[in-house]
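Thread: quick sanity check before group meeting

JM: Hey all, I'm pulling together slides for Thursday and realized we never actually wrote out the predicted structure for the chain we discussed last week. Dropping the sequence here so it's in one place. If anyone has concerns about the input, flag it before I start.
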Amino acid sequence: MTALQLNPDFAIADEQSLRALFEPTHALAIVKCQNSLGEHAQEFIRRSPFFCIGTQSSEGKADVSPRGDPPGFVKVLDERTLAIPDRPGNNRLDTLSNIIANPNVGLLFLVPGFDDTLRVNGRASLTNDPQLLTSMSVADRLPKLAIIVNVGEVFMHCAKAFRRSHLWSPDHFQDRTEMPSLMKIILDETTGASKDGDEMRKMDEDLEQAYRRTLY
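JM (edit): ok, ran it. Output follows.
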C-alpha cells in the first residue's frame, strides 16, 4: 500500500482556521455543560459498567485506559466527587503515574444499549483509604487504591458516533476469529510468535486462566 503524502499547505494549525470550517457551536451544546453531577448524570454512572479515562503525563504524553466492572462500580460520593476502584492490570501504571504528574482527567461513560454517553472532566487524585477500599471489595478482594475525581465539567454526548458505528447492533458484530489471538498479535509484533499451533493454543489457554485467576 502506497503511503498517502499529506500536503502541508492544507494543515489546520490554529483555532481560527479550524472554526472557520464549521458552523457556530449550537447553543444547547454550550448550556448543557454543568459543573456538578445532576440527578440524571448520577443515574447514568450507576448504570455504567464501563468507561474510559484519559490522562496525560507531565510531558504531555497522552493515554486512554478502559475500566470495567459490574454497574455501579464507580461510586458517586457526592455531586462533585467520584471514586473509582483500581482493579488488577498489567502493572504498567500509566494512568496512575500520569495522575500523580498531571491530575487533569477526562472520563467517558458507556451503558450497553445506550447510544448516548456521559462525559466527565475533572482533577484526579489517588487514595488507599481502608474504609473506602473495603466498600469496593469484590470476592473479598480489595483494590490496592482508588482514583478520586473532583468533577469540573459534566455533559451528555449525542448518539451520532454510536449510530454511525452500529456498536450495539448484533448484525454488525465482527468474528473475532478473523484476527489472531491477543498473545499471537503481541508476539508477532515483538519477539515473534511460535509456528507450533499447539504451543500457541497453550499460551492462549494460559492467558484465559490468568484472566480468571487475577480478575480481582
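AS: nice. The two ends are 43 Å apart (CA to CA). The helical segments are 15-19, 27-31, 39-47, 94-101, 130-134, 160-165, 182-188, 197-214.
JM: adding both to the slides.
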